[in-house]
Write a structure and sequence with these properties.
Order of helices and strands: HHEEEEEEEEEEHHHEEHHH
Distance between the termini: 34 Å
Bound molecules: dinuclear copper ion
Largest sheet: 5 strands, mixed
Structural class: alpha+beta
Number of helices: 8
Strand order of the largest sheet: 3-2-1-5-8
Radius of gyration: 27 Å
Number of strands: 12
């Protein structure tokens, strides 16, 4: 559960505030609940007796106590919260280039690295290094949230927000869009994959390489990819500019999931995307393209060749 499994300095601060608030709230709850329980039993009406206790009116001591104690608790939480916010906030300096630019679309995430590589869904980062991530939106308000690694950040059209994205150890961390943004909001997942610096460097270099040239039936698929207008929305090279209309399919065959996590990346599920995109992920923006079974097979072979 995210508040109890922080994997970065900033989520440790968030978890510390969360635990403190939880403990204070639990103590207050126990005091109030035991007071109520005691009164209900002790002063209940029985045997002709109304059970009403002695009434106290206008006690200065009691009034001072129930004003000062909550004031003290709330001020303490305010100070602790502001200190955590200051500690975890990244500089909102739009003049400095970010270490990674993350852009939200209805309904997928894409991330651009300084070397020009564009990825979708799986965002790789080097473990133990703090990246200054710029969060932006191509359409409506979304919210980038990887609960174990970082605070939330709204992706607001026309504005840039910055967060520190970091993981203290290698691993795969789940992320999601945390602001309702339309039909497929719930399927706007992503994963942050933290790797050792050398593995990350190797991955980034590999991403910049084009996939091997398709041969045979996959080469026919490549042609269809152009003639059937797939290429209008989907790029197949990680270094190409984003079309903005659909996620890049660069190195698609090496992805674990499809459609922002909605299904495993299997030939069967990929075929559904080709033949009936709305069945693959209801509500998504991909139009159906009439294809013969032979064309579907060729396109599938081509997509499977994008390693
Ligand atoms: Cu994007 Cu919710």
């Amino acid at each position: 559960m995210p508040p109890f499994s922080p994997h970065s300095a900033q989520t440790h601060s968030i978890a510390a505030v969360f635990s403190l608030v939880l403990v204070i709230a639990a103590v207050v709850f126990l005091i109030v609940a035991s007071g109520v329980t005691y009164s209900v039993i002790r002063y209940r009406a029985r045997g002709g007796n109304s059970g009403e206790p002695r009434q106290v009116f206008g006690s200065q001591t009691v009034e001072i106590l129930w004003t000062v104690i909550p004031l003290f608790i709330v001020s303490g939480l305010f100070v602790v919260t502001v200190r955590a916010m200051v500690a975890i906030d990244a500089p909102q300096d739009t003049t400095r280039p970010p270490d990674i630019a993350i852009r939200a679309h209805q309904w997928w995430w894409e991330a651009r690295y300084p070397n020009g590589v564009l990825v979708t869904w799986d965002i790789h980062i080097p473990a133990g290094r703090r990246l200054r991530a710029r969060i932006e939106s191509a359409d409506v308000v979304h919210d980038f949230w990887a609960p174990e690694l970082a605070r939330k950040m709204d992706a607001v059209p026309g504005r840039w927000g910055y967060i520190w994205l970091e993981s203290d150890s290698p691993g795969t961390y789940q992320g999601a869009c945390s602001e309702f943004c339309g039909a497929d909001h719930a399927w706007m997942r992503f994963r942050v994959i933290a790797q050792s610096q050398s593995d990350f460097d190797a991955w980034l270099t590999e991403q910049a390489q084009p996939s091997p040239a398709p041969t045979g039936i996959a080469a026919q698929g490549e042609q269809l990819f152009q003639t059937k207008k797939c290429a209008d929305c989907h790029t197949v090279s990680a270094t190409a500019p984003s079309s903005g209309k659909g996620p890049t399919l660069a190195h698609l065959a090496s992805h674990v999931t499809l459609g922002g996590g909605i299904s495993p990346n299997t030939p069967q599920n990929l075929t559904v995307w080709l033949t009936d995109p709305q069945a693959a992920k209801p509500g998504n923006r991909m139009p159906a393209t009439p294809l013969t079974p032979a064309e579907t097979r060729a396109l599938l072979a081509y997509l499977e060749s994008l390693r």
